[in-house]
Amino acid sequence: MVKAFNFFRLILVLSIGLFFLSIIMAVQGSSTEVSRHNLMPVPAKISFEQGKLPVNSEFRIVLTGYQEPRLKRAARRLIQRLSIQTGIYLLYEVEKDASKAILEINCQGPGEKIQSIKEDESYTIEVNSSRAYLSATTPVGVLRGIETFLQLVTLDSEGFHIPAVKIQDKPRFPWRGLLIDVCRHWMPAEVIKRNLDGMAMCKLNVLHWHLSEDQGFRVECKSFPKLHEMGSDGNYFTQHQVREILDYARDLGIRVVPEFDMPGHTTSWLVGYPELASAPGPYQIQRFWGVFDPCMDPTREKVYTFLDTFLEEIARLFPDDYFHIGGDEVNGKHWNKNPDIVAFKREHGMEDDHDLQAYFNKRIQAILSNHGKKMVGWDEIFHPDLPKDIVVQSWRGQDSLAKVAAEGYSGILSHGYYLDHILSASRHYQVDPLDRDAAKLNAEQKARILGGEACMWAEFVTPETIDSRIWPRAVAFAERMWSPQNVKCIKDMYRRLEKADRNLEWLGITHRSNYPKMLERLVGNHPIDSLKVLADIVEPVKFYTRPHTHEYTQMTPLNRLVDAVRPESNKARQFRNMVDEMLADTPNYMTNKEIIREWLTEWRGNNSILRPILEESFLLNEVIPLSEDVAALAEAGLQALDYLGSNQRPPQSWLNGISSLLDRPEKPEYELEIMIIPAIRKLIEAALSLLVSHNFEDSDAHGWGVEYP
Amino acid sequence: MVKAFNFFRLILVLSIGLFFLSIIMAVQGSSTEVSRHNLMPVPAKISFEQGKLPVNSEFRIVLTGYQEPRLKRAARRLIQRLSIQTGIYLLYEVEKDASKAILEINCQGPGEKIQSIKEDESYTIEVNSSRAYLSATTPVGVLRGIETFLQLVTLDSEGFHIPAVKIQDKPRFPWRGLLIDVCRHWMPAEVIKRNLDGMAMCKLNVLHWHLSEDQGFRVECKSFPKLHEMGSDGNYFTQHQVREILDYARDLGIRVVPEFDMPGHTTSWLVGYPELASAPGPYQIQRFWGVFDPCMDPTREKVYTFLDTFLEEIARLFPDDYFHIGGDEVNGKHWNKNPDIVAFKREHGMEDDHDLQAYFNKRIQAILSNHGKKMVGWDEIFHPDLPKDIVVQSWRGQDSLAKVAAEGYSGILSHGYYLDHILSASRHYQVDPLDRDAAKLNAEQKARILGGEACMWAEFVTPETIDSRIWPRAVAFAERMWSPQNVKCIKDMYRRLEKADRNLEWLGITHRSNYPKMLERLVGNHPIDSLKVLADIVEPVKFYTRPHTHEYTQMTPLNRLVDAVRPESNKARQFRNMVDEMLADTPNYMTNKEIIREWLTEWRGNNSILRPILEESFLLNEVIPLSEDVAALAEAGLQALDYLGSNQRPPQSWLNGISSLLDRPEKPEYELEIMIIPAIRKLIEAALSLLVSHNFEDSDAHGWGVEYP
Questions:
Q1: Domains of chain A
Q2: pTM, to two decimals
Q3: For residue A520, which residues of chain B lie inside 8 Å, CB to CB?
Q4: Is B87 on the interface with A (CB under 8 A)?
Q5: A600-614, B82-96, B543-557 — most confident range
Q6: CA dihedral B507, B509, B515, B521 (to 10 degrees)
């Protein structure tokens, strides 16, 4: 009796202990818990307390400690954004009297004159029911804290408020970048500025500005004006605009690393300056996508003289420590066709093109160093001849990066972060720079992995669509870069991403508002509702499928359904989750059944409404079979649902019909994927399992068991 | 809100009268066919021919005839907009070789140096299957033609094209304005610019820029800097910004008429310069809405010295021939309290305040004339002492305007065009400047009625919501101003308005995109779908109900459902039309029955989904009863539908219950009207008529027969 009682008490104590332990863990941001806030990226440390601070028209800010104009502008932006976010009229004045302020922003000192990877970005926030206090070592820390502060503002039945909270935050990686390619398709200054706003919101801190390519040279060059005059179709940034953007970025605590890709990817340079080339000109701006032969001649001294003058000018224009030379995808064809170059390689004992490129890189690195810059380049530039202060950007992956770090070089990861691959947010979210071989490095080596960059290559985006291809998925990437490694609950990420997605629209990002507009263009005079039903459950094809399906050029209109639809279908994800929940609810499969039936019924019926609209629009003709397939798939899903409900065997004939439906073309003309297929597949499998238990071999003959275990 | 409160009843009575009159007219004018194009405003003459001109990436423009930079910029904008509209990549180059161009734009000569009401705005367009030709006497005519040209672009199963067509077009009225009040709520330059784009799209040609008010003085004044420094909270246009906006407007063929309201509505002037006032200061910027006592002292010479200097500066800044002095709503209280002013009136034999104001106006008119300006003012300024070149803007209506014209003065109509009354597009559309007494004028007198202005008074709009209050309704007004008087088919107007509505978003007007954003703000973390179901069928209360429901100031947040919803519910209009069609389909009422049932069912069920969301948002708490009433109304509609189908008598108890539901509160807290009520009423009446035929007196006791004939 006594023992039993003690044992019971022990369990009670243990469970109470566990309970509190789990609360503490949740507060510290444990891996699987759903958090109670909307913050993205999740801060390093956060603990909620009792109480809340009302946000109303009395809201005022005071700036204490170190003062600079950038901080005042930041405070004004905070007021403006808070006003937009809440719809409350707020005065744009920064209080001088600390006692009157609701939010005190205390900055301890100036940051770096030129923001570097060493800039202190940490901050703390404390909110109680009467006041909020944001403190940081540097203005950049303040900027990071302001973004968190704005995300804390919540609406409830009493008003807008900020919950009482203590936050101590700092980034996991110092290099958290977004590459924007403005060459394949031209992106004017307003696109860059609004995307800088988006970056700041999720605490990204490097704009990797891809400024020259085969398809365009995008900066005014005073030393060699034919670069922008002949290489850009008139679509380039003036140096005045560049400076404006740099100021804009600095105000947001964002470094700007320019990339001028060389010696390959340089067709647009060679239009005005064919004397730099490895093969005789004349050259024309490249209109197609891919890897092309034209490249600079690394054996000619005049090329280095040219580049010295060029880099001197550009190095002055861009203040950042780093300069990106690209250095990727040189196919060497023009080198090997040029007898002088072949002779040069022989004379210098170079075994292959990689040696020649290494020679070029070393020369460029010396010039850059001379102009005060450290060099960045893609995996290909990595070579033991180069000094340790270069940074290697890896499209190859963590194993490649681990090698770089092991040899004492720094690196950043872009493998797994290509936004133009049109993968899900969760796919990017699960890629960690310190996974795979990088996980085995020692602490010192790991510290050389500086972070990563999401890449927005611009073959298939225009100013109209680029926002929707970057956002909101880049926010998931940004959280991977900023938050502790153990923050990785995908469900919670998606919950918070939805909120971030909305906030981005308040900033002026057009990723949501361009969707109905583009659908309206496609339907002509018709209503968009039925097209939206279809568009909501499809996604563009992935990876490099598009250039292998149609022949695209820079001039090809990107105005089809594939361009309008979202990179990730929220509706399909919801459907998948609902089906999973239903199938877990054995044996009766009741959970979500009605809503699943409702959705499937809508999809089945939609084609008959949509069909005449598709027929009347030359932009939509191509998706007539897509719409039909969705209807047929929905019908199959409904039938599977019926079988599941009745516990009745589906006949063999049913299976035969559906089988072909699920075998999707690999490169459909319309370049879209139907995202409800996996869930419908699961429904069919579940219905099939009724059959399988009776007649396994028959079903196996259709490959079900193997294909979808 | 010029005639805000004093004349509310008058306006209401006039509007009701006008409404019935125009219903009669609309029926009479049913000769106008539903057109086969989307043009808005409808051109004076249009005839379609066989064939179509493809619009694709080969599209090029050539400018022939008279050349000026404004034309080149217009051509570039055309290319840019065509590119956005179609999603086709188009070169921004203007061809030099006419034979290579698809569109030839021929301008015959320069227009006026300062665009006036006499500017020739006519143009012709001819399109055949290989070429398009746009010709105009002046660059402004070219601008008008370009807008028509862009609206001709159509999507079909073969591509984008322009139908073969011949158009000869010119405006009906030379003064087609939009008043934007930037004083009650501050509207920054970007708001003005995007609304100028919207105006140009529908061929409006006057921005009436309401720049001073009790609540704000909005232009930098170099002679008297305390005007903007102390009268604006820092929210004013610098002269540099004003010039930018004037250039922008000129590029669009839009005149800009500045209004500085005087001698009343001048509190914001008096904050910095109390010596101008009729009563001792100090003064503060007015934060409330209404008509206030402060006004200038017309008896002091110093006031005229001040205004002479002021008007000299402002007259130089604004090049237009006309200058608007407001001149409305002087309540005279401060005049009559001031013994000096009372004495002055006595000495000069003035009978009342109107005489004193006429004296003031005459003095101001002389100063303006001296600075090269003609005077514009509201009805109140009309006085036989003034020269014939003044323009009277009438909030009173066509009868008042007819008097003005009969006496040899010019006038423009604004009565019936107050966008802040939140009436339907069709209401404004049916108001014609040459109706009522104006219809009886002779041709010469009629010609003095120069046109009209839609008015966007800014008590209840912010930069976030103003676009949705102006657009698309102002396009219906614009058509009334431009198109022949017999263009008045409402059904066709709405069809084309939907297309104009979409086009406006391409221009950057935010009236559509701000809707989901504002709903998202209201719901916090929830999805907006169920709120949208409710929001789609309600409208803000009309006329001056809002200021009589709550006490509003300049600082009151405009972030509630009443601010987010559209001024006109398209969904409710569709529902009304469907119900009308059904009820015309006697005796079985089958037309649209299923979709009507579907919609009613959705509305009935929506409350249970929406309720928890409304409870969790302090901004939505107030609409809980609204949502419940919609559910109950939908239920009543469904029951009526059942009675209609069964041909069964509704019991008396049913009627009693519904009666109270249809009696809506006149000033509901939530300031919204349920727009499906009229259609539901009709359903109930129809169900009731089954009863009536058997028991007429019983139903008459409920007033049905009388109230809804």
A1: 35-169 (3.30.379.10), 175-487 (3.20.20.80), 515-707 (no CATH)
A2: 0.92
A3: 502, 505
A4: yes
A5: A600-614
A6: 120
